[in-house]
Design brief:
Strand order of the largest sheet: 11-10-9-5-2-1-13-12
Distance between the termini: 44 Å
Number of helices: 15
Radius of gyration: 23 Å
Bound molecules: alpha-D-glucopyranose, calcium ion
Helix content: 25-40%
InterPro entries: GH, GH13_cat_dom, Glyco_hydro_b, O16G_dom_2
CATH architecture of the largest domain: Alpha-Beta Barrel
Strand content: 5-15%
CATH class of the largest domain: Alpha Beta
Protein name: Oligo-1,6-glucosidase
Family: Belongs to the glycosyl hydrolase 13 family.
Number of strands: 18
Keywords: Glycosidase, Hydrolase
Structural class: alpha/beta
Length: 555
């Protein structure tokens, strides 16, 4: 069966609904808020919205703990509001992608409530249950991503259940065909509602190694990915749902490597359309450190170039890249790897140029298009379960990192950096809500907000708008080959795209220093600027801090 590939020409915008726009003034963003902002998104030029989970949920992990897959949580609105949003988006030719969280559910989900009751009811085998050791030890040493063991004892069933994330997020048992059927049914339901695709939460974790081998580091966050039946399960889902219903899919794939990602996204294999890799997001992490993702170093730009180029090359003709620097789990790139003070506009647009110049589908995360920054809150002001759990694990229990160093790392990379309310204007609560928001607004909203950016001479929004328009107009961005230039240069990210006779050069200085890279243009006589974040006379002048541009080489 033929599948449509609209997503290859698309730019996708991620909405984190809790923090996007509150319309009924309860301090929480809602579906009506997304609908209200459709014209804004249309102006930006995006083609589809991926909405983080809005299903009924106790919100232990901000909706990534689903209690009922068929109900919109009242905090976000009603099922009718979702119908309205889908219709309104479609009327403006914007597609809707929902978040598919099916590695685990909430412990409040009726399936789990039934499952924990006994070993012989229709839901008994919906989750990963295991007996305790003779002294009630956990079945093995797997750790939860949010700190502590990945197993929790259940009194009523007298067994342990597995959870890769919070104890309120029990992992589903995909070995059970009934689990898979139940999930496919749910997918059919949302397709009937009109949605166009899925972003699949930790989809590479759905198959578990049933030997449950111990991990090297006890109780560290080293979840098992890419289990023995992963490809089989994903292929089945593709054949049962994605292909027959013609739905787009992008899977979160934390352990996928450039060398093996094609196994998930090669169209011939009929699994997924795209995956989100993690590799390029780890270039500021000290490898193998006991403090895991909180052990930071300066971003290694050479590594960034190598990793991204590897993905470009490896998926060419056997897959399709999902391009991103930002999402609800990632800190703001302008604060993390750029300079959110002196070079706010320049560094935001430099990273955007590098990303949107590549082959694949670019993803823009809410607020990225105006260069929203990481706030520097006090520890007590953060709310994310991962941050809190990891604080307990690393600072309090294990004592391998001091509170101060942990907080420094939080300011750089914690997930909450991306979750502050969207900054619409410089009025109360940044125009997000009349009421106190569920999570503190970044105090820089008086300086950084949509209203101000749109009228600024250095508008990050306008720059994104232009990049997105180029994506729609220029075949070379979609189909052109990719070649990395100056691979060893520690600060300049430059590459060439080529389609037939047409040649483009994408160039960015990802540092605060000036660099002379005239050698890049030795063979260039005639050219035109496609886009640039600073006015410049000639292409050969040295690149100023975070300066970036794309040129078309005419001769
Ligand atoms: C994914 C989500 C993240 C969530 C986790 C558990 O990584 O993006 O926000 O906490 O899965 O669902
Ligand atoms: Ca609300």
């Amino acid at each position: 069966m033929m599948r449509s590939t609209w997503w290859k020409d698309a730019v996708i915008y991620q909405v984190y609904p809790k923090s996007f726009k509150d319309t009924n003034n309860d301090g929480i963003g809602d579906l009506k808020g997304i609908q209200e902002k459709l014209p804004y998104l249309k102006e930006l030029g995006i083609d589809a919205i991926w909405i983080s989970p809005v299903y009924l949920s106790p919100q232990i992990d901000n909706g990534y703990d689903i209690a009922d897959y068929y109900q919109i949580d009242p905090m976000f609105g009603s099922n009718e509001d979702m119908d309205d949003l889908i219709a309104a988006a479609h009327a403006q030719e914007i597609k809707i992608i929902m978040d598919f969280v099916a590695n685990h559910t909430s412990d409040q989900c009726v399936w789990f409530q039934e499952s924990r009751k006994s070993k012989d009811n229709p839901y008994s085998d919906f989750y990963m249950w295991k007996d305790a050791g003779p002294n009630r030890e956990v079945p093995n040493n797997w750790g939860s991503s949010f700190g502590g063991p990945a197993w929790t004892w259940d009194e009523s069933r007298q067994q342990y259940y597995l959870h890769y994330y919070a104890k309120e997020q029990p992992d589903l048992n995909w070995e059970n065909p009934k689990v898979r059927e139940t999930i496919y049914e749910m997918m059919h339901y949302w397709k009937k509602k009109g949605i166009d695709g899925w972003r699949m939460d930790v989809i590479t974790s759905i198959s578990k190694d049933l030997d449950f081998p111990d991990n090297e580091i006890p109780f560290a966050k080293n979840n098992q990915h890419n289990g023995p039946r992963m490809h089989e399960f994903i292929h089945e889902m593709n054949q049962r749902v994605l292909t027959p219903l013609d739905m787009m899919s992008v899977g979160e794939a934390p352990a996928a490597k450039a060398s093996n990602a094609h196994l998930l996204v090669d169209p011939k294999r009929e699994e997924l359309d795209m995956v989100f890799t993690f590799e390029h997001m780890h270039i500021d992490r000290k490898k193998g450190d006991v403090n895991g993702r909180w052990a930071l170093q300066a971003p290694d730009i050479v590594a960034l170039k190598n990793i991204m180029s590897e993905w470009q090359e490896n998926l060419r003709d056997r897959g399709w890249n999902a391009l991103y620097f930002a999402n609800h789990d990632r800190a703001r790139i302008v604060s993390r790897w750029g300079n959110d003070r002196e070079y706010h506009y320049e560094s935001a647009t430099a990273y955007a140029t590098i990303l949107h110049g590549q082959q694949g589908t670019p993803y823009v995360y809410q607020g990225e298009e105006i260069g929203m920054t990481n706030p520097k809150f006090e520890l007590e002001e953060y709310v994310d379960i991962e941050l809190r759990g990891n604080y307990e694990h690393f600072v309090e229990d294990q004592q391998t990192i001091s509170k101060k160093d942990f907080l420094d790392a939080v300011h750089k990379v914690s997930r909450d950096n991306a979750r502050t309310p969207m900054q619409w204007n410089n009025k109360k609560n940044a125009g997000f809500s009349e009421a106190d928001p569920w999570f503190k607004v970044n105090p820089d909203y008086t300086e950084i907000n949509v209203e101000k950016d749109l009228t600024s001479e250095k508008s990050i929004f306008r720059y994104y708008q232009k990049l997105i328009a180029l994506r729609h107009q220029e075949e070379i961005l979609k189909e052109g080959t990719y070649r990395l230039l100056l691979p060893e240069h520690p600060a300049i990210f430059a590459y060439e795209r080529q389609l037939d006779e047409q040649k483009w050069l994408v160039v960015a200085n990802l540092s605060e220093y000036t660099h002379d890279v005239a050698e890049l243009f030795d063979d260039v006589q005639v050219y035109r600027f496609v886009i640039q974040n600073k006015e410049r006379e000639t292409v050969t002048d040295a690149l100023r801090p975070y300066e970036s541009f794309i040129i078309q080489v005419v001769e």
